[in-house]
Design goal:
Layout lengths: L3 H12 L2 H8 L3 H15 L4 E2 L6 E2 L1 H23 L9 E6 L1 H6 L1 H11 L4 E6 L2 H9 L5 E4 L8 E15 L9 E2 L8 E4 L5 H12 L9 E4 L3 H9 L5 E4 L4 H6 L3 E2 L1 E2 L5 E9 L5 H18 L1
Parallel strand pairs: 3-4, 3-5, 7-12, 8-9
Antiparallel strand pairs: 1-2, 5-13, 6-10, 6-11, 6-13
Helix pairs in contact: 1-2, 1-3, 1-4, 2-3, 6-11
Length: about 300
Protein backbone atom coordinates (compact mmCIF):
# COMPACT_ATOMS: atom_id res chain seq x y z
CA UNK A 1 0.00 0.00 0.00
CA UNK A 2 1.56 3.28 -1.09
CA UNK A 3 1.74 6.44 1.01
CA UNK A 4 2.40 10.17 0.57
CA UNK A 5 6.13 9.63 -0.03
CA UNK A 6 5.32 7.84 -3.27
CA UNK A 7 3.36 10.91 -4.32
CA UNK A 8 6.53 12.94 -3.73
CA UNK A 9 8.44 10.41 -5.79
CA UNK A 10 6.04 10.79 -8.72
CA UNK A 11 6.17 14.58 -8.47
CA UNK A 12 9.96 14.47 -8.71
CA UNK A 13 9.71 12.13 -11.69
CA UNK A 14 7.33 14.55 -13.38
CA UNK A 15 9.14 17.84 -12.65
CA UNK A 16 12.74 16.61 -12.72
CA UNK A 17 13.67 19.07 -9.97
CA UNK A 18 13.57 18.93 -6.17
CA UNK A 19 12.62 22.61 -6.08
CA UNK A 20 9.78 22.31 -8.58
CA UNK A 21 8.49 19.12 -6.93
CA UNK A 22 8.45 20.93 -3.56
CA UNK A 23 6.55 23.87 -5.05
CA UNK A 24 4.03 21.56 -6.68
CA UNK A 25 3.39 19.69 -3.44
CA UNK A 26 3.53 22.81 -1.25
CA UNK A 27 6.23 21.34 0.97
CA UNK A 28 9.87 22.21 1.55
CA UNK A 29 12.75 20.99 -0.58
CA UNK A 30 14.36 19.20 2.41
CA UNK A 31 11.06 17.37 2.89
CA UNK A 32 11.23 16.13 -0.71
CA UNK A 33 14.77 14.91 -0.08
CA UNK A 34 13.70 13.15 3.12
CA UNK A 35 10.83 11.39 1.36
CA UNK A 36 13.11 10.12 -1.41
CA UNK A 37 15.73 9.03 1.13
CA UNK A 38 13.06 7.09 3.02
CA UNK A 39 11.94 5.27 -0.14
CA UNK A 40 15.50 4.43 -1.14
CA UNK A 41 16.17 3.00 2.31
CA UNK A 42 12.86 1.16 2.28
CA UNK A 43 13.46 -0.44 -1.13
CA UNK A 44 17.20 -0.73 -0.45
CA UNK A 45 18.21 0.74 -3.81
CA UNK A 46 18.91 4.04 -5.55
CA UNK A 47 15.88 5.46 -7.33
CA UNK A 48 17.58 8.47 -8.95
CA UNK A 49 21.00 9.06 -10.47
CA UNK A 50 22.19 12.64 -9.78
CA UNK A 51 25.86 12.15 -10.66
CA UNK A 52 25.68 14.36 -13.78
CA UNK A 53 23.75 17.16 -12.07
CA UNK A 54 20.67 15.80 -13.78
CA UNK A 55 17.99 13.83 -12.07
CA UNK A 56 17.56 10.57 -13.91
CA UNK A 57 15.65 7.49 -12.89
CA UNK A 58 17.58 4.30 -12.28
CA UNK A 59 16.18 1.02 -13.58
CA UNK A 60 14.74 0.38 -10.14
CA UNK A 61 13.28 3.89 -10.15
CA UNK A 62 11.60 3.26 -13.49
CA UNK A 63 10.06 0.06 -12.15
CA UNK A 64 8.72 1.86 -9.06
CA UNK A 65 7.37 4.71 -11.21
CA UNK A 66 5.41 2.30 -13.37
CA UNK A 67 3.98 0.56 -10.33
CA UNK A 68 3.17 3.77 -8.46
CA UNK A 69 1.41 5.35 -11.41
CA UNK A 70 -0.81 2.28 -11.75
CA UNK A 71 -1.70 2.24 -8.05
CA UNK A 72 -2.36 5.98 -7.91
CA UNK A 73 -4.48 5.78 -11.04
CA UNK A 74 -6.53 2.91 -9.61
CA UNK A 75 -6.94 4.77 -6.33
CA UNK A 76 -8.17 7.89 -8.07
CA UNK A 77 -10.60 5.83 -10.11
CA UNK A 78 -11.91 4.23 -6.94
CA UNK A 79 -12.32 7.63 -5.27
CA UNK A 80 -14.29 9.05 -8.18
CA UNK A 81 -16.54 6.01 -8.49
CA UNK A 82 -16.91 4.82 -4.89
CA UNK A 83 -20.56 5.93 -4.66
CA UNK A 84 -21.52 3.82 -7.64
CA UNK A 85 -19.93 0.62 -6.36
CA UNK A 86 -22.57 -1.81 -5.12
CA UNK A 87 -22.12 -3.19 -1.62
CA UNK A 88 -22.75 -6.69 -2.97
CA UNK A 89 -19.51 -6.58 -4.95
CA UNK A 90 -17.31 -5.65 -2.01
CA UNK A 91 -14.55 -7.97 -0.81
CA UNK A 92 -12.42 -7.20 2.21
CA UNK A 93 -10.17 -8.78 4.83
CA UNK A 94 -10.31 -7.46 8.36
CA UNK A 95 -9.45 -8.31 11.92
CA UNK A 96 -11.32 -8.04 15.19
CA UNK A 97 -10.34 -8.49 18.79
CA UNK A 98 -11.92 -11.37 20.70
CA UNK A 99 -14.83 -9.52 22.32
CA UNK A 100 -15.76 -7.88 19.02
CA UNK A 101 -15.07 -10.85 16.76
CA UNK A 102 -16.97 -13.39 18.83
CA UNK A 103 -19.83 -11.35 20.29
CA UNK A 104 -20.40 -8.25 18.13
CA UNK A 105 -19.56 -9.23 14.56
CA UNK A 106 -21.54 -12.49 14.05
CA UNK A 107 -25.00 -10.83 13.92
CA UNK A 108 -23.58 -7.89 11.94
CA UNK A 109 -21.98 -10.12 9.31
CA UNK A 110 -25.09 -12.31 9.18
CA UNK A 111 -27.18 -9.22 8.45
CA UNK A 112 -24.77 -8.05 5.74
CA UNK A 113 -24.77 -11.43 4.01
CA UNK A 114 -28.56 -11.60 4.17
CA UNK A 115 -28.89 -8.20 2.50
CA UNK A 116 -25.83 -8.53 0.22
CA UNK A 117 -25.32 -12.24 -0.57
CA UNK A 118 -22.58 -11.57 -3.13
CA UNK A 119 -20.37 -9.78 -0.58
CA UNK A 120 -17.24 -11.72 0.44
CA UNK A 121 -14.90 -11.15 3.37
CA UNK A 122 -12.32 -12.76 5.63
CA UNK A 123 -12.23 -12.07 9.38
CA UNK A 124 -9.23 -12.74 11.62
CA UNK A 125 -9.78 -12.83 15.39
CA UNK A 126 -6.72 -12.06 17.51
CA UNK A 127 -5.53 -9.73 20.26
CA UNK A 128 -4.91 -6.03 19.67
CA UNK A 129 -1.14 -6.30 19.37
CA UNK A 130 -1.30 -9.06 16.76
CA UNK A 131 -3.96 -7.27 14.70
CA UNK A 132 -1.97 -4.03 14.61
CA UNK A 133 1.06 -5.96 13.38
CA UNK A 134 -1.00 -7.57 10.60
CA UNK A 135 -2.50 -4.21 9.64
CA UNK A 136 0.97 -2.65 9.43
CA UNK A 137 2.13 -5.46 7.15
CA UNK A 138 -0.81 -4.91 4.80
CA UNK A 139 -2.30 -8.31 5.60
CA UNK A 140 -5.60 -6.73 6.73
CA UNK A 141 -7.59 -3.87 5.20
CA UNK A 142 -8.87 -2.63 8.55
CA UNK A 143 -9.36 -3.81 12.11
CA UNK A 144 -11.92 -3.38 14.88
CA UNK A 145 -10.25 -3.27 18.29
CA UNK A 146 -11.15 -2.66 21.91
CA UNK A 147 -7.60 -2.33 23.18
CA UNK A 148 -5.33 0.63 23.86
CA UNK A 149 -3.02 1.79 21.07
CA UNK A 150 -1.39 4.96 19.75
CA UNK A 151 -4.09 6.54 17.62
CA UNK A 152 -1.67 9.07 16.14
CA UNK A 153 -0.20 6.29 13.97
CA UNK A 154 -3.54 5.34 12.40
CA UNK A 155 -6.81 6.67 11.04
CA UNK A 156 -9.50 5.73 13.56
CA UNK A 157 -13.28 6.05 13.65
CA UNK A 158 -15.33 5.37 16.77
CA UNK A 159 -17.51 2.29 16.23
CA UNK A 160 -19.24 2.20 19.62
CA UNK A 161 -18.82 2.77 23.36
CA UNK A 162 -19.35 -0.29 25.50
CA UNK A 163 -19.69 -0.95 29.23
CA UNK A 164 -16.72 -2.71 30.82
CA UNK A 165 -18.08 -4.64 33.78
CA UNK A 166 -17.12 -7.04 36.59
CA UNK A 167 -19.07 -10.30 36.78
CA UNK A 168 -19.33 -13.22 39.15
CA UNK A 169 -21.40 -16.31 39.75
CA UNK A 170 -24.95 -15.63 41.00
CA UNK A 171 -23.99 -17.72 44.06
CA UNK A 172 -21.06 -15.46 45.00
CA UNK A 173 -21.38 -13.72 48.38
CA UNK A 174 -21.28 -10.25 46.82
CA UNK A 175 -23.50 -11.02 43.81
CA UNK A 176 -26.47 -9.11 45.21
CA UNK A 177 -24.81 -6.38 47.28
CA UNK A 178 -22.72 -3.26 46.75
CA UNK A 179 -19.03 -3.77 47.46
CA UNK A 180 -15.95 -1.50 47.56
CA UNK A 181 -13.27 -2.21 44.98
CA UNK A 182 -10.82 -3.48 47.61
CA UNK A 183 -13.45 -6.00 48.66
CA UNK A 184 -12.57 -8.05 45.57
CA UNK A 185 -8.89 -8.54 46.37
CA UNK A 186 -9.37 -11.95 47.99
CA UNK A 187 -11.26 -13.28 44.97
CA UNK A 188 -9.64 -15.40 42.28
CA UNK A 189 -9.23 -13.17 39.22
CA UNK A 190 -9.52 -14.84 35.81
CA UNK A 191 -7.95 -12.76 33.01
CA UNK A 192 -7.09 -12.85 29.33
CA UNK A 193 -3.47 -13.17 28.26
CA UNK A 194 -0.89 -10.37 27.86
CA UNK A 195 -1.52 -8.37 24.67
CA UNK A 196 -5.30 -8.68 24.81
CA UNK A 197 -7.31 -5.47 24.80
CA UNK A 198 -9.52 -6.63 27.67
CA UNK A 199 -6.53 -7.21 29.94
CA UNK A 200 -4.86 -3.89 29.08
CA UNK A 201 -8.07 -2.00 29.78
CA UNK A 202 -8.45 -3.71 33.16
CA UNK A 203 -4.84 -2.96 34.10
CA UNK A 204 -5.38 0.73 33.30
CA UNK A 205 -8.54 0.76 35.42
CA UNK A 206 -6.49 -0.64 38.28
CA UNK A 207 -3.82 2.04 37.80
CA UNK A 208 -6.46 4.77 37.87
CA UNK A 209 -7.47 3.50 41.31
CA UNK A 210 -3.88 3.12 42.53
CA UNK A 211 -4.07 -0.67 42.39
CA UNK A 212 -2.25 -3.31 40.35
CA UNK A 213 -2.66 -7.00 39.59
CA UNK A 214 -0.59 -7.65 42.72
CA UNK A 215 -3.67 -6.50 44.66
CA UNK A 216 -5.27 -9.88 43.92
CA UNK A 217 -4.05 -12.97 45.74
CA UNK A 218 -4.92 -15.45 42.99
CA UNK A 219 -4.76 -14.83 39.24
CA UNK A 220 -5.44 -17.22 36.36
CA UNK A 221 -4.72 -16.36 32.71
CA UNK A 222 -6.79 -17.93 29.93
CA UNK A 223 -6.79 -16.97 26.25
CA UNK A 224 -10.37 -18.04 25.61
CA UNK A 225 -13.32 -15.88 26.67
CA UNK A 226 -15.81 -18.76 26.64
CA UNK A 227 -13.60 -20.70 29.05
CA UNK A 228 -13.30 -17.67 31.34
CA UNK A 229 -17.06 -17.18 31.46
CA UNK A 230 -17.65 -20.88 32.10
CA UNK A 231 -15.27 -20.87 35.07
CA UNK A 232 -16.92 -17.75 36.49
CA UNK A 233 -20.41 -19.26 36.17
CA UNK A 234 -19.13 -22.22 38.21
CA UNK A 235 -18.05 -19.88 41.01
CA UNK A 236 -14.34 -20.41 40.42
CA UNK A 237 -13.49 -16.70 40.23
CA UNK A 238 -14.48 -13.30 38.92
CA UNK A 239 -13.57 -11.43 35.77
CA UNK A 240 -13.85 -8.04 34.06
CA UNK A 241 -15.05 -7.93 30.48
CA UNK A 242 -17.24 -6.04 28.05
CA UNK A 243 -20.90 -6.41 28.93
CA UNK A 244 -21.70 -7.27 25.31
CA UNK A 245 -19.47 -10.35 25.64
CA UNK A 246 -21.55 -11.67 28.58
CA UNK A 247 -24.97 -10.34 27.55
CA UNK A 248 -26.50 -13.78 27.06
CA UNK A 249 -25.20 -15.16 30.37
CA UNK A 250 -26.27 -12.06 32.30
CA UNK A 251 -29.77 -12.15 30.82
CA UNK A 252 -30.12 -15.89 31.54
CA UNK A 253 -28.90 -15.48 35.12
CA UNK A 254 -25.74 -17.57 34.67
CA UNK A 255 -23.62 -14.52 35.52
CA UNK A 256 -24.27 -11.58 37.82
CA UNK A 257 -22.93 -8.05 37.57
CA UNK A 258 -20.85 -7.03 40.57
CA UNK A 259 -22.06 -3.73 42.00
CA UNK A 260 -18.80 -1.93 42.86
CA UNK A 261 -19.00 1.39 44.69
CA UNK A 262 -18.36 4.34 42.33
CA UNK A 263 -17.60 2.08 39.38
CA UNK A 264 -18.83 2.96 35.89
CA UNK A 265 -16.43 2.24 33.04
CA UNK A 266 -16.94 2.52 29.29
CA UNK A 267 -14.39 1.96 26.57
CA UNK A 268 -14.26 2.48 22.83
CA UNK A 269 -14.51 -0.05 20.04
CA UNK A 270 -12.54 1.55 17.20
CA UNK A 271 -12.50 1.04 13.43
CA UNK A 272 -8.83 1.37 12.43
CA UNK A 273 -7.04 1.71 9.08
CA UNK A 274 -3.52 2.62 8.06
CA UNK A 275 -2.91 6.35 8.14
CA UNK A 276 -3.49 8.14 4.83
CA UNK A 277 -4.69 4.97 3.13
CA UNK A 278 -5.61 5.53 -0.53
CA UNK A 279 -8.60 3.27 0.03
CA UNK A 280 -9.93 5.18 3.01
CA UNK A 281 -13.20 6.04 1.27
CA UNK A 282 -13.87 2.41 0.42
CA UNK A 283 -13.13 1.42 4.02
CA UNK A 284 -15.44 4.15 5.25
CA UNK A 285 -18.18 2.75 3.03
CA UNK A 286 -17.67 -0.64 4.70
CA UNK A 287 -17.64 1.07 8.10
CA UNK A 288 -21.06 2.60 7.42
CA UNK A 289 -22.44 -0.77 6.31
CA UNK A 290 -21.17 -2.36 9.53
CA UNK A 291 -22.55 0.46 11.66
CA UNK A 292 -25.93 0.25 9.96
CA UNK A 293 -26.14 -3.47 10.72
CA UNK A 294 -24.91 -2.85 14.29
CA UNK A 295 -27.68 -0.33 14.95
CA UNK A 296 -30.26 -2.83 13.72
CA UNK A 297 -28.97 -5.37 16.24
CA UNK A 298 -28.94 -2.97 19.21
Amino acid sequence: MLDFRHETFLALCSHGSFTKAAEHLHITQPAVSQHIKFLEEYYDCKLFDTSNRKIQLTQQGKLLKEFAITVFSDSQHLKENIQTIKAESLHFSFGATLSIGEYVMPPILSDLLTRHPEMTFHMTVANTKSLLEQLNKGELDFILVEGLFDKSHYDTTLFSRENFVPVCSPQATFAKQEIPFEGLKNSRLILREHGSGTREIFEHILEDRNYSLDTFDKIIEIGNMAAIKHMVTKGLGITFLFEVAAKQEIESGELSLINIVDYAEQREFNFVTLKNSFFREQYQQIYHLLRQAFRLEC
